[in-house]
């Protein structure tokens, strides 16, 4: 007898639970809709879920759903399987070449938009999620995204084109290919220490690019490079904003102060964890408080 969509969903949920997936039911449902869209050749809206669960499953749906559930049981992230991730006000293409945009990173976008800016530089842009989100809100601003990975830059360019944002992308080791000054510099750099990598979830440790996760050392190398060079690339009054690991606030704040930046500020995410450090380029040589 042909199984219904509901039979497939129940079986998939059990399989993912046995594989150690914490959000097994939610992942199984999201992947069911994705598989139904792939099998039918067009996206399936969520309001059709009840109908699809009650109906006998098409062979193409069964085959596609088996494939994506097997990938998830192997701990591949849902966003990589579907190729999409919602962030801020848009959906971004995601591949194994880029870091999966996290909801907590939206704090950086929110704080960056708290003041006007005419130019922005995103260091380690990855999928382009931060830069594109900012430029979509400030279409008159000029934006540049830099990344060491050509594959990541290809994803970012496609996301910018799809979302309709005009941005420039450069292959660069931090500021190496950047001569300009900006009103705003943002970055979500690799901040996981090498000895912390084994403790990460398999979805992160085994599937996301290590270049975007760790510096291979103490997790602070990127901040040292960015903070030291930022003053030469900020306009007077311009801001530097970086996402940090939960225990890195004091160290990153010290690096910004040592670079001569002022108004150094630490912000927490919705979970109460230290998440963001920002500082300002002094408008004058005497304005270096903070």
Brief sketch in words of this structure:
The protein has 290 residues and is an alpha/beta fold. 38% of the residues lie in helices and 18% in strands.
What does this structure look like?
Methylates the class 1 translation termination release factors RF1/PrfA and RF2/PrfB on the glutamine residue of the universally conserved GGQ motif. Residues 7-83 form the Release factor glutamine methyltransferase N-terminal domain. The protein is α/β, with parallel strands linked by helices. The protein folds into 2 domains: 5-74, no CATH class; 84-280, 3-Layer(aba) Sandwich (Rossmann fold), CATH 3.40.50.150. Helices cover 38% and strands 18% of the residues. It is built from 11 helices and 9 strands. The protein has helices at residues 5-18, 24-40, 49-54, 59-73, 78-82, 106-112, 129-137, 150-163, 202-205, 221-229, 249-258, and strands at 84-87, 90-93, 119-123, 142-147, 168-171, 182-187, 234-243, 262-268, 274-280. It has a 7-stranded mixed sheet with strand order 5-4-3-6-7-9-8, with helices on both faces. A two-stranded antiparallel sheet has the order 1-2. Strand 4 (142-147), helix 8 and strand 5 form a beta-alpha-beta unit. Helix 1 (5-18) packs across helix 2 (24-40), helix 2 crosses helix 4 (59-73) and helix 10 (221-229) packs parallel to helix 11 (249-258). The N and C termini lie far apart (70 Å).
């Amino acid at each position: 007898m042909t199984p219904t969509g509901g039979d497939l969903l129940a079986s998939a949920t059990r399989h993912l639970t046995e594989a150690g997936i914490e959000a097994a039911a939610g992942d199984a449902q999201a992947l069911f809709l994705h598989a139904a869209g792939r099998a039918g050749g067009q996206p399936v809206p969520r309001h059709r879920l009840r109908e699809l669960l009650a109906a006998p499953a098409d062979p193409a749906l069964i085959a596609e759903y088996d494939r994506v559930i097997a990938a998830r049981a192997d701990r591949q992230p849902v966003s990589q399987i579907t190729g999409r991730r919602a962030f801020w006000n848009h959906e971004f293409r995601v591949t194994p070449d880029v870091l999966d945009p996290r909801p907590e990173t939206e704090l950086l976008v929110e704080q960056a938009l708290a003041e006007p800016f005419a130019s922005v530089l995103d260091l380690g842009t990855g999928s382009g999620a931060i830069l594109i989100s900012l430029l979509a809100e400030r279409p008159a601003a000029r934006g540049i995204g830099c990344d060491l990975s050509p594959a990541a830059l290809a994803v970012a360019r496609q996301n910018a084109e799809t979302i309709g944002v005009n941005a420039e992308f450069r292959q660069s080791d931090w500021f190496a290919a950047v001569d300009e000054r900006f009103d705003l510099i943002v970055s979500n750099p690799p901040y996981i220490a090498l000895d912390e990598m084994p403790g990460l979830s398999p979805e992160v440790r085994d599937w996301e690019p290590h270049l975007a996760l760790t510096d291979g050392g103490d997790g602070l190398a990127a901040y040292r490079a960015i903070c030291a060079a930022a003053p030469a690339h900020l306009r007077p009054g311009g801001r530097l904003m970086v996402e940090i690991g939960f225990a890195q606030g004091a160290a990153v704040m010290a690096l910004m102060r040592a670079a001569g930046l002022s108004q150094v500020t630490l912000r927490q995410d919705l979970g109460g964890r230290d998440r963001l450090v920002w500082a300002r380029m002094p408008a004058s040589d005497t304005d270096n408080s903070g």
